[in-house]
Amino acid sequence: MHHALSAGEGREGLSTIYRVTPGERVEGQPTQGILREQAVQTDGMWSGFARTEPGMVSGWHHHGEYESSIYVLTGSLHMEFGPDGQEAFDAGPGDFVFVGKGVVHRESNPSTEQGTMVVVRAGQGEPVTNVDGPR
């Protein structure tokens, strides 16, 4: 049974505990350079898996009214944010990264291996908004 559903899409038949296998994840919201796979989306939460290729730099984006927690599994996650994108840090395997509501940012993977991350967002509305850049 396929469980990677958005809230309101046939949820009445699902139990309140279920498994989502890698093959059951569905394509998540696109941002240039980041492949997102949605596992679960409810009225107040989004969770999934994200992949980045070595050397990639994503487009600028924010997550609206969602707060995000990112757990880095492999590769390197370079986060840029703040006025004119001037603030930055690197995160690696085992690190958690928090992204606050509406914070414009972009990610890159400066490592030589594919980046993989588990992402959980809490909030409402559109989980991803792509923008031209930070202010």
Number of DSSP helices?
Answer: 0
What is the CATH superfamily classification? Jelly Rolls
- Portion of residues in beta strands equals 35-45%
CATH architecture: Sandwich
Order of strands, main sheet, comes to 1-2-3-10-5-8
The oligomeric status of these chains comes to single chain
**CATH topology annotation:** Jelly Rolls
What's the gyration radius in Å?
15 Å
Runs with pLDDT <50, length 5+?
5-11
Number of domains: 1
Strand tally: 11
Q: Report the top-level CATH class.
A: Mainly Beta
Q: What is the residue-mean pLDDT, rounded to a whole number?
A: 91
Question: What is the first-to-last residue Cα distance?
Answer: 44 Å
Rough outline: globular
Question: Overview of this structure, please?
Answer:
- Helices cover 0% and strands 41% of the residues.
- It has one domain: Jelly Rolls (Sandwich).
- The chain has no helices and eleven strands.
- The chain has a six-stranded antiparallel sheet with strand order 1-2-3-10-5-8, with no helix packed on it.
- It has 135 residues and is mainly β.
- The termini are far apart.
Secondary structure: elements and pairs:
Layout: E1 26-27, E2 35-41, E3 45-52, E4 61-62, E5 67-74, E6 77-81, E7 87-91, E8 96-99, E9 105-108, E10 115-122, E11 129-130
Antiparallel strand pairs: 1-2, 2-3, 3-10, 4-11, 5-8, 5-10, 6-7, 6-9
